[in-house]
Specification:
Blueprint (H helix, E strand, L loop, with lengths): L5 H8 L12 E6 L6 E6 L5 E7 L5 H11 L13 H8 L3 H12 L9 E2 L5 E7 H8 L4 E5 L5 E4 L2 E5 L8 E3 L8 E2 L8 H4 L8 E3 L7 E3 L8 H7 L15 E5 L7 H11 L9 E5 L13 H14 L4 E6 L18 H10 L7 E4 L1 E4 L5 H16 L3 E5 L31 E2 L7 E7 L4 E2 L6 E7 L7 H9 L11 E4 L2 E4 L3 E5 L2 E5 L2 H21 L9 H10 L4 E2 L28 E2 L1 H8 L10
Parallel strand pairs: 13-15, 13-16, 14-15, 16-18, 18-20, 20-24
Antiparallel strand pairs: 1-8, 2-6, 3-5, 3-9, 4-5, 6-7, 10-17, 11-12, 17-19, 20-21, 22-23, 25-26, 27-28
Bound molecules: 2-acetamido-2-deoxy-beta-D-glucopyranose (6 copies).
Protein name: tripeptidyl-peptidase II
Function: Secreted tripeptidyl-peptidase which degrades proteins at acidic pHs and is involved in virulence.
Pfam family, one: Pro-kuma_activ
Length: 609
């Protein structure tokens, strides 16, 4: 049943043919240039279903942000006073006027207010509708777009409209203009055992002053196990004490399945005390976790084996979110074109008791996500931080941008229709409310040249970076001027080893790398820090960055500074890793022992008021 409003009635009376919803004056809400590297293949089938998400403005978000910064600031008396789910929701709730304006519009298409699916804060409304209706409501045409290089395809549009009076009541409608592919950040090359090992037999250990007992087993150079990381990052024999309350999680997308047999083989070989341990799987939006060995996902196995291995026996969760990888265009009717990342966010924000540490190794170029939507996603990550969750993302595997050293590939061009040459920041790493992790390799540690790093073009520099980042930019002088945005949020924040990780996947034992390996390593270590705090009755660390930048300024040896080397890309050598923070390895890699002492309140005045 469609409900016709009074206005429609008047139009009909005046002899104008009216159809549901069409009585409003539409105006373009968002329009993007046809994305580089994608081809418009054909009109989307009218009966293809999409889960349309309508984002209503969050007028009090700045208040939420202020809370977030206060409770994450180690010098603030409210440090650790995380907000409840209800408190966060009250701060992101839309204005009543927006709710009724949107409800009224949807009612004109026959969607009764009480039938609509909403986020519990009411800031999102979700509708499962055929393309034909979405096209009518948004005065647009959806097409099947194919990514030339990978063959992946999605149903999207480059422009959509909304009734003019709704522009102030709706921030964003998706899926429309987002062309992100959210790929896993594992480096695609496997290193064979023989190639990787650079063991110096004459020298059984490598002296590393910051390591546990001042040394690391030589076999770890180019061949990492959880034991190696415990030595290198000075975790030593720390044993978790708060497994009753602490939790850690990794996210999985795009049919990446974490295999239990691989997990057990890994533990049997590298972490015997964890043998027969397991993790929970939470299935979101019809996600699955196929246990046949040939369905095992390298990304999922890497993430779970290291994040959960380092934090064992902390209870662990793997989130598997449905939504196939962008599909083959011919197969369109059997696939959906949702954005699985949005499904995970809506799930986790609805969880009254989310894990204190969550690591994600997926992302894409910032410019593939429109500003309006990137802002909303980033704000959801802020909500998690305000709830006391440490959100960790890999910084990407393309240095300052895809396109290796061949300008002819033109990957380092902007997507805005102007084709300017620019470094290409990664998202969500560029969101100021997450902790982005870059990569090192070898022992002693060096910059790994793939380490994603740079400056956001969307998010301005947060206050917590106001000392470290301008210092770096000043020293950079006019190098790369015009290629990066010096006023943007800079990343990564920290780094960890990102190559030569031994994993089991699909029953095989091999080495893998990428910032995908670095993120779960930092995730595991952060979870141990949370453990130490929870065991003392202190709140979890929550959003980490204000603390990380304070430590970087005051207790710099709590991170192992990486100096030298650069993150090449876009036909350049990229940024150079300097003393202190840099957009290659952040402040460096963690020294768990020192961070632990800070976290439980033994160092400096960081936590003393
Ligand atoms: C170094 O690692 C190798 C390989 O894991 C192991 O066989 C050896 O016992 C280790 N040496 C020390 C001193 O821990
Ligand atoms: C570790 O391996 C790298 C790369 O082969 C090498 O340059 C470095 O010297 C090795 N470290 C030690 C202490 O031998
Ligand atoms: C692990 O599980 C296997 C198979 O159920 C069992 O035989 C073995 O005793 C278990 N090991 C430990 C240490 O519990
Ligand atoms: C959920 O997944 C199952 C098995 O993969 C499939 O048969 C079913 O159609 C899916 N349901 C939805 C709503 O996508
Ligand atoms: C930008 O590049 C695209 C793809 O190569 C091309 O179609 C377009 O005309 C270019 N735009 C400008 C302004 O040069
Ligand atoms: C640079 O970043 C700022 C803040 O994030 C933004 O307002 C501005 O538009 C960006 N400039 C370019 C050229 O991207």
């Amino acid at each position: 049943m469609k409900s016709f409003g009074l206005f429609v009635g008047l139009l009909v009376a005046a002899g104008v043919a009216a159809a549901p919803g069409k009585d409003y004056e539409h105006k373009v809400k968002e329009s993007v240039a046809p994305p580089r590297g994608w081809t418009k293949v054909k009109p989307a089938p009218a009966d293809h279903f999409i889960d349309l998400r309508i984002g209503l403005p969050q007028p009090k978000f700045h208040e939420l942000e202020q809370h977030l910064y206060e409770i994450s600031d180690p010098f603030h008396e409210r440090y650790g006073a995380h907000l409840s789910k209800e408190e966060v929701e009250a701060l992101i709730a839309p204005h009543e006027e927006s709710v009724s304006a949107v409800d009224e519009w949807l009612a004109s298409y026959g969607f009764a207010s009480h039938e609509l699916s909403r986020s519990s804060a009411g800031d999102w409304v979700k509708l499962r509708i055929p393309v034909s209706l979405a096209e009518e409501m948004l005065k647009t045409e959806y097409h099947v777009w194919q990514h030339e290089e990978s063959g992946d395809a999605v149903v999207r549009t480059t422009s959509y409209s909304l009734p003019e009076h709704l522009h102030v009541h709706i921030d964003v409608v998706q899926p429309t203009t987002t062309f992100a592919r959210m790929r896993g950040m594992k480096a695609t090359y496997h290193y064979a055992d023989e190639e990787a090992r650079v063991v110096n037999i004459a020298q059984p250990t490598i002296p590393i002053p910051s390591a546990y007992n001042g040394q690391v087993n030589s076999s770890c150079n180019g061949s990492l196990t959880p034991t190696c990381l415990r030595e290198l990052y000075n975790i030593g024999d720390y044993t978790p004490q708060a497994a009753d309350v602490n939790k850690i999680a990794c996210t999985g997308y795009l049919e990446q399945y974490a295999n239990f047999e691989d997990f057990n083989d890994f533990n049997a070989k590298y972490l015997p005390e964890a043998i027969n341990s397991t993790f929970d799987v939470i299935y979101i939006n019809n996600g699955s976790n196929d246990q046949s060995l040939d369905a095992a996902g390298v990304e999922a196995d890497l993430d779970t084996q290291y994040a959960f291995g380092l934090s064992y026996p902390t209870p662990a969760t793997f989130y598997t979110t449905g939504g196939s990888p962008p599909f083959i265009p011919d197969d369109i009717t059997t696939s959906d074109s949702n954005e699985p990342y949005a499904d995970w966010l809506s799930y986790i924000l609805n969880d009254p008791n989310p894990p204190q540490t969550i690591s994600t190794s997926y992302g894409d170029d910032e410019q593939t996500v429109p500003y309006s939507y990137a802002t909303r996603v980033c704000r959801e990550l802020a909500q998690l931080g305000a709830r006391g969750v440490s959100i960790i993302f890999s910084s990407g595997d393309n240095g300052v941008g895809d396109g290796d050293s061949d300008p002819a590939t033109q990957e380092c061009y902007t997507n805005n229709g102007l084709n300017e040459t620019k470094f290409v920041p990664a998202f969500p790493a560029s969101c100021p409310y997450v902790t982005a992790v870059g990569a090192t390799w070898y022992i002693p540690e060096e910059t790994y040249f793939i380490s994603g790093g740079g400056f956001s073009n969307y998010f301005s520099r947060p206050l917590y970076q106001d000392i470290a980042v301008p210092h770096y930019v000043k020293n950079l002088g006019n190098t790369y001027e015009g290629l990066y945005n010096a006023s943007g949020r800079a990343y990564p924040d920290v780094a960890a080893q990102g190559q030569f990780f031994w994993i089991f996947s699909g029953g095989e034992n091999f080495l893998i790398g990428g910032t995908s390996a670095a993120a779960p390593t930092v995730g595991g270590i952060v979870s141990l820090l949370n453990d130490a705090r929870l065991a003392k009755g202190l709140p979890a660390l929550g959003f980490l960055n204000p603390l990380i930048y304070a430590i970087g300024a005051i207790v710099p040896d709590a991170f192992n500074d990486i100096v030298g080397g650069s993150n090449r890309g876009c036909g350049t050598e990229g940024f150079t890793a300097e003393v202190g923070w840099d957009p290659v390895t952040g402040f460096g890699t963690p020294n768990f022992g020192k961070l632990h002492d800070i976290a439980v309140g033994n160092i400096g005045g960081l936590f003393d008021f």
